[in-house]
Amino acid sequence: MNDHSGTRTRATLRDVARLAGVHPATASRALNEATRSLVTATTVQRVVAAAEELAYRPNPIARGLRTSRSFTIGVVIPDLTNPLFPPIVRGIEDTLNRSGYGTLATNTDNDPARERNAIETLRAREVDGLIIATARRDDEALEELIESNVPVALVNRRLLDRRLPLAAVDDRKGIREAVAHLAELGHERIAHIGASRALSTGDQRYQGFIEAMRGMGLDPDPDLIHLGESFTEPEGARLCGALLDADRGMTAIVAGNDLIALGCYDAMDERGVACPAQISVVGFNDMPFVARFSPPMTTIRIPHYEMGVAAAELLLERIEFPDAAVREVLLEPALVVRGSTAPPPGVGLSNR
Amino acid sequence: MNDHSGTRTRATLRDVARLAGVHPATASRALNEATRSLVTATTVQRVVAAAEELAYRPNPIARGLRTSRSFTIGVVIPDLTNPLFPPIVRGIEDTLNRSGYGTLATNTDNDPARERNAIETLRAREVDGLIIATARRDDEALEELIESNVPVALVNRRLLDRRLPLAAVDDRKGIREAVAHLAELGHERIAHIGASRALSTGDQRYQGFIEAMRGMGLDPDPDLIHLGESFTEPEGARLCGALLDADRGMTAIVAGNDLIALGCYDAMDERGVACPAQISVVGFNDMPFVARFSPPMTTIRIPHYEMGVAAAELLLERIEFPDAAVREVLLEPALVVRGSTAPPPGVGLSNR
DNA sequence: TTGTACGCGTTATCAC
DNA sequence: GTGATAACGCGTACAA
């Protein structure tokens, strides 16, 4: 009727009230889940019908001003372009959207200055909470955040002292499965090529490796453990190349993640070392398409989407009950055996 | 100094005004770049100093309520988990962040209802503009959007009549290069396995195929053209399987995208057909890691990140100059030859 | 049960 | 050049 000439401006609460023949305050109560019980059922119906007819959508900005809530969550990740993060972010977004929150995402490329800046910008925007997936273990920006009382949840990283809720995978367990798989195949000289212990996951996986080796009664040879700067293919290639050239007699590699494992493929190809015939490789993450590589990669599967969901739930919980105890959700990794692992050179033959 | 006892609540404009001994309105003018010239220099100084001291940060929500600008842009994509989108989204976010905008992202899984809902939610949040990457060609939600005068830019999709700015790649040209490459290798019986023409890119690539074949003096056999529902691996496998079983004597396939090409790999593996020895395959997009597949995939590379950047710039332009002519940015695709293409069975031999 | 009145933090638009 | 005032759209004490 009155919205001829195109959908000019959106219907406001006042419009709904007018159409329903009630006061805006009443309309507000009728539309608001929590206060609906204060209003007569028939009035509620009229208001709801009016809202429907006008396609009324409350203005979150106005509501936010009143309630000092923005229904927006900041998400800070290193790099969306890293195949690890899209499923995590989707898990976060799906979950948060369902609860009426929007997500403001920022990439920091693991640069501390950019991270600090991102957090500040997000806070200036009055986000109701923050989900942080950047990876360093020491982090001043995070310290400040803890003091500021802004609700925060961490994904895929670990603070030493459990002051912040966390959704992550049990890295040590994952590595343990990788090592166990290799040990069962008969490997003893197992190398670990990982990333810096300054990165939360780098540290966990390193520790997991040491533990797992000892647990299997194997000796974690320091000469077979190389930790690089980052979880990247070039780093994997560099470190693996060095290990190969040093000729330390390893028959298997537990890589810190799939990208590093891929770097190992590269270094081995370059030197004509066959995988898995001569050296087995296990990755970590089970990124998309690793099953299509040659050889198809044996790796540890991480439920990334679920990790995002869990982080979002943790944050929601934190927003609703700020004083509840800090929880950690640890998801289960799973070994996926494919083509990059086999018995070590001698064993396969002698067994037949 | 004075912010002992923790950062309780942020300073407001009124606080700044009080400290500077001026009226809030004056403080507002002094702090606002655009209106600063209306205020005496010394007053400006006092206000700025006061703001500094209180670490004043304007409340974007309140400002947004008043100015009805949110400095937030909505980004609507089908699925972040599709390797196509992360670089696009990063390009968008990087560019927009640099201009002070935040981005609110939503995934629709190409479901029209969810798309409609997402757009509505985003508009209710008073986003200053929308970037839309969903793919269908006919789109009521989009029609409404055009009428509503909300600034919009499209990425990677095409409306028939240039009513909206667009950043995309020249799909037809990409397909032309694929066909030319195959033709040069000696192929004549070339198939096209694509996605529905209801999808903007599906349609473009289909048309490109027809054109290119004719351009090379080849006959686009309708029996060798199969269009599926979506750009997915299972669809590729299904369609390619059907084509293989029908035994129409094709020697090469131009796939609608890399995922479909991957499906072709699957169907061929299943039937013991060798790629590229018996049939060559060309993909589209150059997703991460396709060089790692076996065989490494020959495909068309798309500058995805740049596409995102271009879309963001287009939108910014649109926000600033709503009445400027609608522009389209068409990026250049590039053929990347790898291992999935070779001369057709007969030719390679007879040439030696 | 519903209406009144006010305030959230800013800025636009008047006066002065 | 600056101050007063209203208004953006909504939620909520308080009054009726």
Can you describe this structure?
2 copies of one chain form a homodimer. Chain A is α/β, with parallel strands linked by helices and 352 residues long. In chain A, 44% of the residues lie in helices and 14% in strands. Chain A contains 13 helices and 12 strands. Chain A has helices spanning 13-20, 24-31, 41-54, 60-67, 85-98, 112-124, 140-148, 171-185, 200-215, 233-246, 258-271, 304-320, 345-350; strands at 72-77, 102-107, 129-132, 152-155, 166-169, 190-195, 225-228, 252-255, 280-282, 299-301, 328-331, 334-336. In chain A, the strands form 3 sheets. A 6-stranded parallel sheet of chain A has the order 2-1-3-4-5-11, sandwiched between helices. In chain A, strands 7-6-8-9 form a 4-stranded parallel sheet, with helices on both faces. In chain A, strand 6, helix 9 (200-215) and strand 7 form a beta-alpha-beta unit. In chain A, helix 10 crosses helix 11. The longest helix of chain A has 17 residues, at 304-320. The first copy, chain A, starts with 12 loop residues before the first helix and ends with a helix. At the A-B interface, helix 4, helix 5, strand 2 and helix 6 of A face helix 4, helix 5, strand 2, helix 6 and helix 7 of B. The first copy, chain A, binds a DNA duplex (16 and 16 nucleotides) through helix 2 and helix 4.
